[in-house]
Specification:
The chain is an alpha/beta fold. The chain is built from ten helices and six strands; from the N terminus they run βαβαβαβαβαβααααα. Strands 2-1-3-4-5-6 form a six-stranded parallel sheet, with helices on both faces.
């Protein structure tokens, strides 16, 4: 069972999200109307996934994500917003969020995203995050320490390139003509060897460290 905390300042949106997440393997354990309440409830209930809007009173979703990730490293944060403004994406991922989706997402895609984030797979909104991570993270003022890619096997480096390009596990499996289970195993081993919590953070670190530059990832 995936335990989810919903944080959004609009009651109607929270109700809609609760309905959308009405799946047998997902339980909405609480709702928060602002960032501070989200932090309090996360501390109390320790959900698997926090689905948080960016713009909320008292404390926005990204600030809340920063606190939650610092205090509850096992929790995953999925940022939800009506806006696709560049700085929101990068701020969210830098704060430790496992993904970023827009509010016009289809219900089935949101459910898939929550499941993926809960499994440590991350959720990168198609058409938004791939472009913006490249734009913002590839040229920081000071490059982050390089990823220890020497720890990876040749196949794992190949999979890493596809992850950075934004391919999901099923797409990686199809591209490399391997089973989905094998693709998941490769990604899991890469995350462990690179000391990253999920694929979203792996992508950020790959760009920040200079391992990947805009346009160089396989598309």
């Amino acid at each position: 069972m995936i335990r989810v905390l919903i944080a959004d300042d609009q009651a109607l949106v929270r109700a809609g999200l609760r309905t959308m997440l009405g799946e047998p393997d997902i339980e909405v354990v609480a709702e928060a109307a602002d960032g501070r309440e989200a932090v309090r409830l996360a501390r109390e209930l320790r959900p698997d996934v926090v689905l948080a809007d960016v713009q909320m009173p008292r404390m926005d979703g990204i600030e809340a994500a920063t606190v939650i990730m610092a205090e509850l490293p096992e929790a995953k944060v999925l940022i939800l917003t009506s806006y696709d403004r560049d700085e929101y994406v990068y701020r969210a991922l830098k704060a430790g969020a496992s993904g970023f989706v827009l509010k016009d997402i289809e219900p089935a895609e949101l459910v898939r995203g929550v499941r993926a984030v809960a499994e440590g797979d991350g959720m990168l909104a198609p058409g938004v995050t791939r472009r913006l991570i490249a734009e913002f993270a590839a040229a920081p003022a000071v490059l982050a320490p390089p990823l220890p890619v020497e720890r990876l096997t040749e196949r794992e480096r190949e999979v890493l390139g596809l992850v950075v390009a934004g391919l999901a596990n099923d797409e990686i499996a199809a591209r490399l003509v391997i089973s989905l289970a094998t693709a998941k195993t490769h990604v899991s081993r890469i995350l462990s060897k690179m000391d990253t919590r999920d694929r979203a953070q792996l992508v950020v670190r790959a760009y920040e460290s200079g391992l990947v530059r805009p346009g160089s990832a396989t598309s």
